[in-house]
Amino acid sequence: MAEKSGADILVETLLDLGVDTVFGYPGGAVLPIYDALYEHPKIKHILVRHEQAATHAAEGYARSTGKPGVVLVTSGPGATNAVTGITDALMDSIPMVVITGQVATNLIGTDAFQEADTIGITRHCTKHNYLVKKPSDLAHVVQEAFHIATQGRPGPVVIDIPKNVQVAAAEFSRHTAKGNSRYQPQTEGDFKAINSAAEMIMSAKAPILYTGGGIINSGPKASKTLRELAEMLGCPVTSTLMGLGAFPASSEQWLGMLGMHGTFEANMAMNKADLVVCLGARFDDRITGRLDAFSPHSKKIHVDIDRSSINKTIRVDLPVVGDVGRVMEQLIAVLKGRRFAKPDHEEWWSRIKGWRATKCLEYPESKKEIMPQLAIRRLWEATHEREPIITTEVGQHQMWAAQHFDFEKPNKWLTSGGLGTMGYGLPAAIGAQLGNPDALVIDIAGEASIQMNIQELGTATQYRLPVKIFILNNEYMGMVRQWQELTYESRYSNSYSDSLPDFVKLAESYDWTGIRIEDPADLDAGIKKMLETDGPVLVDCRVSKLANCFPMIPSGAAHTDMLLSAEDVLGTMDDQAKALV
Amino acid sequence: MHIQEEAVERHVLALLVDNEAGILARIAGMFTARGYNIDSLTVADISEDHAVSRITIATNGPPHVIEQIIAQLDRLVPVHSVRDLTESGPHVQRELALVKVAGKGENRIEAMRLADAYRARIVDASTESFIFEITGAPEKIEAFVALMREVGLVEVGRTGVVAVGRGPNAG
Fold first, then answer.
1. Which of A296, A428, A471, B112 has the most CB atoms lying inside 10 A of its own CB?
2. How far apart are CA B3 and CA B19, in angstroms?
């Protein structure tokens, strides 16, 4: 066997694993790897402007293609800048492998230049991490890292490689037998549990499917299986923020998103259901609201590939550990075997019809200013036939997008759910565009969030990516302002976006096209111009400054205590509610 | 507003883990990150090829937290198995302590008498001090240390609990 440097072993192993795109930023401790990449044009390296953006771009790439995202950054500040995106990927179960440079092994622990304890810092924001001390360990570690990142509940894995390990040589052959990994998650559901689930479904009078990001992670086949299962059961379907697109919004059975900014009908149906089937979701606090009032009359089935998600906050009657796509297939087979006939659930649907009649997503109309909800709906109307990929930042615009932009297919909706990371949307759109060169990719943004990774305009320019940014500009950190109205009697402490740049000029300085929309009468024309313009376009859409996002379950409240409009807002809360996030 | 506390129970967990760098930090850090308690933690390599370590953790928490602790430990990649010895039936728990006592006259004699009653061994002696070695369940050690306080306790070193399930099978 021939000897190769650690850097070459790394790059060749990445090629073996089918890696075609790496998001990164060079620096002293990764120079040997960058030099090896120079020899391997098959791996496309995307030079971002900040390491955090590399991680979000990798997330966008992963979430829209189903393949793991790969990041390459240097030691010290390179690694610490990547931590936010790594944590984001952990919270939202995104497969990602992050390669960080490290100072040479003999310098570790000496406070060397650009040294940080990357392994220590990332231990609890990764699914697993490695410090590679010998070049001969590299191939196996990289293979196992990809296995761990993608199998079971996906997540980020960090590989920290000291500079001398990148330079030193070890024997390597591209066809070295791959060892069995010690990580073998359970994908098949327990047969007895599936049978019990079938029985619970057969006796339910008011069942509901509560679906989540696990269905997206399981692959497009799981979304098809969900449609088949829902069709078979004839029951309503709701989803978390992360699960949007797994079930078509155009279906009669679709209730919309549930939880804090979910629909009235979804939350009421969860509250009154006699059976909740949780498929690849995790009873997050944005979903449950007040725990002791969450779906109080229902039996609960929880299908999750991660055993630690089960009974974490909500006790369930029947846990099923396994891949949600596979478990749904098993469940369908058992139901068919038992000659399950689709029930009509007439009474249940008539109650749902009553809740739907509140038309909870309606908002006040205005001729003078652009309502943000309208802007999103018009954007949907203008683009939905092209099946766009939508990314978002975090805040009101994100919730409005979730409420008013309908999705028919999985992998089209990329948002930071668990960690709620402002600055996610633009780099994620860049990653998604690279993974889907022909797709229409739009970052629906707010004027505050977009500034958190605004430097990535340059990345899109460099790689000629026709990304569109649609900023709902209300000159406020709108969600913060909304909470201050709800809780602190409208004392707007630091939530005003002062000293904003001229976004149109800013876009133009990066060689983007900039468009400003100010009048409701110009909304459609502005959107049309954005879509007809080749290359990247930034739209500064000036919207109603004080519009708020409803419906809303205020913190600490039950699903039945939704605020439907601004008239329901009291302006203060007790300390118990104030203490909740 | 006041913060509510729940009733807790003590559990002893036995883990088999890959004997690799950072495994202890990974486990201890998971406990702090999620706000769980560690009463004691012992770790030693137990396999012939030094590839596997056994970690014994005594922890406490409400039952639903104990269940989460086990699930969270179980999903760490280097953790092969987690067994709740408290839950899975009868088991033997032992801890070793070294207890130094100093004094003269009646206290010195009393310390020796008590050590004898507790089957503690003298492993070091000077004209004014003893070091006792005592092995047993944690309650026995606590009782012994409490008695020694009255007759001139100087310092105590404890190993933390190790535990093994009863019967012919491995956990």
1. A428
2. 39
Lowest-confidence pick of A232-241, A327-336, B4-13: B4-13
User: Do A376 and A404 meet the contact criterion of CB atoms below 8 Å apart?
Assistant: yes
| Residues of A noted as catalytic | 51, 113-114, 163, 479
Tracing tokens 């790059």 back to the chain, one arrives at A11
Is A123 in CB contact (< 8 Å) with chain B? yes
Rounded Cα–Cα distance for residues B80 and B55 (Å): 11
Instruction: Please give the helix or strand (H or E) that residue B89 lies within, else none.
Output: none
CA dihedral B7, B12, B16, B21 (to 10 degrees): 70
Residue A487 and residue A493: Cα distance in Å, rounded? 12
- Neighbouring CB atoms inside 10 A of A491's CB total 9
d(CA A195, CA A209): 17
Residue of A nearest to B32 (CA): A124
User: How far does B158 lie from chain A, in Å, by closest CA?
Assistant: 28
DSSP code per residue over A75-144: STHHHHHHHHHHHHHHHTT--EEEEEEE--GGGTTS--TT---HHHHHTTSSSEEEE--SHHHHHHHHHH
- The Cα A179–Cα A171 span in angstroms is 16
Q: Which of A23-37, A200-214, A534-548, B156-170 comes out lowest in average pLDDT?
A: B156-170
Cα distance between residue A405 and residue A384, in whole Å: 9
Q: How far, in Å, CA of A280 to CA of A320, rounded? A: 10
User: To the nearest whole angstrom, how far is the Cα of A373 from the nearest Cα of chain B?
Assistant: 37
Q: Is A186 on the interface with B (CB under 8 A)?
A: no
A364, A373, A389, A401: which is closest to A523 by C-alpha? A373
DSSP H helices, chain B, are 23-33, 63-74, 106-117, 138-150
Q: Which two tokens stand for residue A500?
A: 């904003």
Identify which of B143, B164, B7, B17 has the alpha carbon closest to the alpha carbon of residue B92.
B164
Strand-strand pairing, A537-542 and A468-473: parallel
Using the 8-state DSSP alphabet, how is residue A166 labeled?
A: H
Yes or no, beta carbons of A576 and B77 under 8 Å apart: no
Which residue bears the tokens 């990719």? Answer: A441
| A524 token code pair | 């459609």
The strand order across the sheet containing A468-473 reads A413-414, A389-392, A441-446, A468-473, A537-542, A513-517
Lookup result for tokens 């509901």: A208
What average pLDDT does the segment A409-434 reach? 98
Q: What is the pTM of this model?
A: 0.95
Phi-psi region at B53: left, alpha or beta (left = phi > 0; alpha = psi -120 to 50): beta
Q: Which residues contact A371 (CB under 8 A, 6 or more apart)?
A: A363, A364, A365, A520, A543, A544, A547
Distance CA A239, CA A242 (A): 8
Does residue A116 register a pLDDT over 80?
yes
Query: Is the previous residue joined to A388 through a cis bond, with omega within 30 degrees of 0?
Result: no
Chain B within 8 Å of A120 (Cβ-Cβ)?
yes
- Nearest residue in B to A153, CA atom: B75
In the predicted structure, residue A178 carries a pLDDT above the cut 80: no
C-alpha distances in angstroms, A554 versus A210, A265, A273, A295, A484? 21, 17, 21, 17, 12
